[in-house]
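CATEGORY: protein folding

GOAL: derive structure tokens
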Amino acid sequence: MKVAVRYSGLLLACLIVAGCDRAAAPAAEPLVLEGKTMGTFWRVSLAGVDNARAATLQQRIQQRLDADDRELSTWKSDSVLSRFNQYRGVDPQAVSENMADIVTTSLRIGRKTAGAMDITVGPLVNLWGFGPDKQPVKTPDQAQIDAARALTGLQHLKVIQNGTGQWLQKDLPALYVDLSTVGEGFATDHLARLMEQEGITNYLVSVGGAVLTRGKNADNQPWRVAIQKPTDQENAVQAVVDLQGHGISTSGSYRNYYELDGKRISHVIDPHTGRPIEHKLVSATVIATTALEADGWDTGLMVLGTEKAKQLAIEEKLAVYLITKEGDGFSSWMSPQFSAFIHTP
């Protein structure tokens, strides 16, 4: 059975058949497990794994993801991250190694993107109605935006790690950290580690818009993922990639939005302006060694816009695929590193 499930610009289609050939019948069926986490969906495809393991694996996967959600969620008031956000002091707060790692990676990518990827942008996300707060009934005014921006900034957050543990520290008591831009990649990498612990070496795992693969699919072919065209058509494919054991993530401005005062409001917020992006870049896909890395970079590139994203991709030697609105259609661009992953039938 062929499946087509859309996750934030990635079309996980025909993953179990060689070459995504819709006319060919698969020689073998993978074990496919699915569920919900972090307000989105997770999916695991396994090659060469007995169906008798399905119930146990489903339970262990859900337990792992539930544990991640208890750390990272801004929707759960008792999560580790929510407790840090609620804390109104400046003393270091003890966190897990996982939390320290995801924040460290986010701060590094944030600096590389000159603050375009900013995990402290939570007050602005909430102001524009994409966080736990309700959607605004009118466009926020400049005073509201300025007030929210005053509570943001990567320079106010740091990670402390030594031989006795790890801590997060903020020098702005009201600083609000939102890890939703990297949470899916983080959880996807966790699923990959769980598969390895279970002795499974041929798998595709995904949480929301982040995907990571290892080994081969049920037909002993590379796992393939399609980048979806920025349209509402179910199976409109822009490009197909052989992941070759890498992670991939797409950030797009064309799905998560609402209409307010006659304008389309994107969920992608520019930390520098405090407003949703309005440029022509509609999709940024990144392939990296981990899903977390890919998930962090795609958000920053989306904020930067086409030309700055191209420049940074070349400077940092990133595997990047960009889709830009051009008149009534779209244009695409890929970095040299990305072209190595393109599948050509």
